[in-house]
Amino acid sequence: QVQLVESGGGLVQAGGSLRLSCAASGRTFSSYAMGWFRQAPGKEREFVAAIRWSGVRTDYADSVKGRFNISRDNAKNTIYLQMNSLKPEDTAVYYCASDSSGRVAGINPDYWGQGTQVTVSS
Questions:
Q1: CA angle 24-92-17, nearest 5°?
Q2: What dihedral do alpha carbons 98, 82, 39, 122 form, nearest 10°?
Q3: Binning pLDDT at 50, 70 and 90, where does residue 65 land?
Q4: Inter-residue contact 29 to 55 (CB < 8 Å)
Q5: What is the pLDDT of residue 92?
Q6: DSSP β-ladder status, 92-99 and 116-121
Q7: Which of 17, 29, 96, 118 is the most interior residue, by most CB within 10 Å?
Q8: Virtual CA dihedral for 3, 9, 14, 16, nearest 10 degrees?
């Protein structure tokens, strides 16, 4: 049973930073891709960033390139999303997800975390 547990959300002013964490358990994830998605009120869930547990390949939505950075700590089975220069439009529930096929570009998750709220005030 795959479990993904997010943490690190909160309230921050525009221009500030937050780091989200996602602790993964229940499988050997070495061949998986892991990603972050977000869903703002009244909008569809959208892709934010993805990374493989092995290798260096990453992918980002255009809206976050240059501001967000996805990384991993294999020893801790944890992935991170460092979010800098936050904007009010980044306000959303952020979800961690895993894709057992290992796709980074076009990640299509099999499993989801419960989400963590990020609110950016203007």
A1: 75
A2: 180
A3: very high
A4: no
A5: 98
A6: antiparallel
A7: 96
A8: -90
